[in-house]
Amino acid sequence: MFEGIERSICRNRDTTLRNRVLAFLLLISVSSTAFAAPFLMGLGELIEGDSDPRGISANGAVAVGRISAGSLGSGFRWDYRTGLSGIAEAQSGDYLSVGYATTRDGGTIVGIGRIDGEIHAARWTSAKGVESLLSLSAATPEYHLRRAEAVSADGRVVAGSAGHGDGSFAYRWTIENGPEYLEYESGSYRQSGPTAISADGAVVVGYVDAGVGGLAFRWNEADGMVTLGDLPGGKNSSIAYDVSADGTVVVGESTTDFGREAFIWTAESGMQPLGIPIVDSYFSIKISGDGSRIVVWSAVDSLGYWEEGLGAVDLIDHLTNTYGLDFSGWDSLRVHDISDDGNTILGSGRFEEGGNQAWIAHIAPETAPGDFDGDGQVSLADYDKWVADFGQPSLPSYGADGSGDGVVDAADFTVWRDHYEPPGAPPVPEPTTIALLLFSVCSIRRRRGVRFAMRSVCTQA
Ligand SMILES: [Ca+2]
Ligand SMILES: [Ca+2]
Fold first, then answer.
1. What is the CATH number of the domain that holds 282?
2. What is the pLDDT of residues 131-187, one digit of tens each?
3. Which of 253, 318, 385, 451 is most buried, with most CB under 10 Å away?
4. Domain limits for position 311
5. 425 domain residue, yes or no
6. In a domain, 72, yes or no
7. Domain-located, residue 34
């Protein structure tokens, strides 16, 4: 895509020509695959260093993370229409140094911000830009909110870690009441950190160190912070990394006699091994909203996937053999997140020996024009979905984006109308020409958007 071309400006001039060629090749592969699901799409290079994608929105349309530019880095936001852009305020100089998670519609990003030269837990919205969480609610002086790790679907509840004395402690912030420490069932503890939150913000998961090693916890208002135990064998150690949308299924890692291993936890079954080892010290274990699909970064180029009824398999083999995705040319593969709808997986790797690049693997089956909810027919339910999602970014031709331009807009209504067949009325097909026209216009807008956005990253270097 075009991101690669823009990005190369920031980088060593010697590699510019090669990157332009690579970016062009990527552009070809993206253009030829983006409109037929399933597809694999490179999102643009993240430059060297510690840049990584971190999270993806509920329908897979918005990815967030960290992008490096020279010695500095900033949070990034990606969607199909606007491409990859750094999150910095041109006027104040404030920026998000990393984006960890985003809301259902991708409109709010939470992470670590540099605001007036100081580090704060922060959020970004297109309307208000980068803001300290504390500035949004009545401040409690003892809190230093260092980072915001997770956010509810509507953005009104955030979980993160706060500094207090020498320790770091999990807090839950609500737009109404501000931050509150999560209390541990057994009283005092050394430190704790949250990693994920349920869609409604009522359940937070993470780890707590109560002096006997770190243990996975699940918190809700009624029960407080309850540890989830650990897998048999090895030392007493576990960490929760993600939770299903309704808060009932937790995934993480725990130590056994054979080393560290991914687990799945429910109240009914307790903690069970997934059969996927964890090798790298930096890794990721993420679950879809309904709890039926799990992705596991075990080690670089060794990624796991678990699905209800399928069990544990190799992620890349599964994406290749089941969905026909082509990972040839990619190496140093990592996986970072799976969307709540379970249909988009966010990863990173190197393509044709280029720099570290984010990718998404979209595995929803292709649907007929106007069938926005994918139930096989074009009905009033599809119109309702278009209304509910109006204005939101989308992967092209997925969900209510009938026109394939990456946003749910008026053109998509036209696609639905032209394929809706009320009883007794003949169908009126046609929208291909309009869709192509819209796409070409938005492609130009996308290129301009990327160029502007990348400039804000480049100027920080
Ligand atoms: Ca339908
Ligand atoms: Ca559209």
1. 2.120.10.30
2. 999 888 876 667 789 999 999 999 999 999 998 777 788 999 999 889 998 987 665
3. 253
4. 39-366
5. no
6. yes
7. no
pLDDT at 461: 25
Q: How confident is the model at residue 438 (pLDDT cuts 50, 70, 90)?
A: very low
Nearest residue to 43 (alpha-carbon basis) of 385, 337, 276: 337
375 alpha carbon – ligand 1 mean position (Å): 5
Point out the ligand nearest to the CA of residue 385.
1
pLDDT value of position 168 = 86
Residue 300's H or E segment, with its range, is: none
User: Strand pairing partners for 151?
Assistant: 158
**Could you tell me the strand order of the sheet in which 62-69 lies?**
52-56, 62-69, 72-79, 83-86
Among the listed residues 228, 226, 340, 329, the one whose alpha carbon sits nearest the alpha carbon of residue 287: 340
273 preceded by cis ω (within 30°)?
no
At residue 228, does pLDDT exceed 70?
yes
Q: What is the pLDDT of residues 72-93, one digit of tens each?
A: 678 999 999 999 888 988 888 8
User: What distance in angstroms lies between residue 20's CA and the mean position of ligand 1's atoms?
Assistant: 41
Residue 172 belongs to a domain: yes
Ligand nearest to the CA of 376: 1
| pLDDT tens-digit readout, 243-283 | 999 999 999 999 999 999 999 999 999 999 999 999 988 88
Give residue 428 CA to ligand 2 midpoint distance, Å: 19
How crowded is residue 90: how many other Cβ atoms within 10 Å of its Cβ?
12
- Name the closest ligand to CA 374: 1
Count CB atoms within 10 A of the CB of residue 263: 28
DSSP structure string for 160-218: EEEEETTEEEEEEEETTTEEEEPPBTTB--SEEEEEEE-TTS--EEEEEE-SS-EEEEE
Helices (H), 277-370: 315-323
Residue pair 385/70 in contact (Cβ under 8 Å)? The answer is no
Q: Diameter of the chain by CA atoms?
A: 72
Tens digits of residue pLDDT in 355-374: 889 999 999 999 999 999 99
Q: How far is the CA of 444 from the centre of ligand 2 (A)?
A: 15
Instruction: Tell me how many domains the chain contains.
Output: 1
CA dihedral 42, 46, 47, 50 (to 10 degrees): -130
Residue 248 burial (10 A CB sphere; 0-12, 13-18, 19+): middle
Q: How far apart are the first and last CA of the chain?
A: 23
C-alpha 403 – ligand 1 centre gap (Å): 16
Report pTM.
Answer: 0.83
Residue bearing the bigger pLDDT, 446 or 157: 157
How far apart are the C-alpha atoms of 34 and 441, rounded to whole Å?
Answer: 17
Neighbours of ion ligand 2 (CB under 5 A): 401, 403, 405, 409, 412
Question: How far apart are the CA of 438 and the centre of ligand 2, in A?
Answer: 8
